[in-house]
Amino acid sequence: TVGCAVVDSQGRCAAATSTGGLMNKMMGRIGDSPLIGAGTYACDLCGVSCTGEGEAIIRGTLARDVAAVMEYKGLGLQEAVDFVVKERLDEGKAGLIAVSKTGEVAYGFNCVGMFRGCATEDGFMEVGIWE
Amino acid sequence: MGGWAIVVHGGAGVDPNLPAERQEEAKQLLTHCLNLGISALRSSLPAIDVVELVVRELETNPFFNSGRGSALTEKGTVEMEASIMDGNGRRCGAVSGVTSVKNPISLARLVMDKSPHSYLAFSGAEAFAKKHDMEMVDNEYFITEDNKGMLKQAKEANTILFDYRVPLDSCGAGVESPIVMNGLPISVYAPE
Description:
B: two-stranded antiparallel ribbon; 39% helix
């Protein structure tokens, strides 16, 4: 699975996710990536893209929950990502990336590593795999 | 307002024994995609265009599990899915069961922009792509030798793998492993 979340200089957020799914999956199996609110979500507050065990991400409506805890609990972006990865996945293994309308970047995962890269207008740039 | 920002991912759940050169290859691809997105943002492209542009690049490169290099079904074929969402107005588009559209994320974008729906799947999605002259390729285009090997391992281990790039030797696929975690023999985690 691959994904991208972006906020532009007008403060508009967007997110996109694309995947081949699971190796040896059944024909016709649908994962989280195409489900808005599970694998992908964007609103005026943030943009989110998820990856990992699709069935756990779907049950946890993971991407929408990041926006929801920002909206209803007033959490900041990284707090919201950490909360959702910690509280919404049960035994599932997954990761997600997110941006906020104020130009923050965040990611979180509870499995072995996640391929990710992030950059902000003030010059910050990071590419990583492990914790 | 805080200025632009971009995050990309290539999947979670990485083989703990991923060889260093593969790790380096992944980092170079992620850096390349970040730079692609950064120059688009500096040219004031809207966020929705930037996410599509970056994911297209990731779909075209076979390194990660999407587009070319997608995971294989139990029958050794490729069925892809994608979604895109614009926070500005919360518009969205999604596709599933796509087997011959070169860039599924652009088909999801087309569903968002050019259809009255937000999700098309299987033959409906393929017909919509044809109607709009999207670039179509044979399913073989998406299948890589690496993934044929991965599918064989998964079948021998009688399991379903997500995003792991489990090496041949440590998967112990041929040996019946008593303990399994995330669908993988516990031996994969032995180093930890």
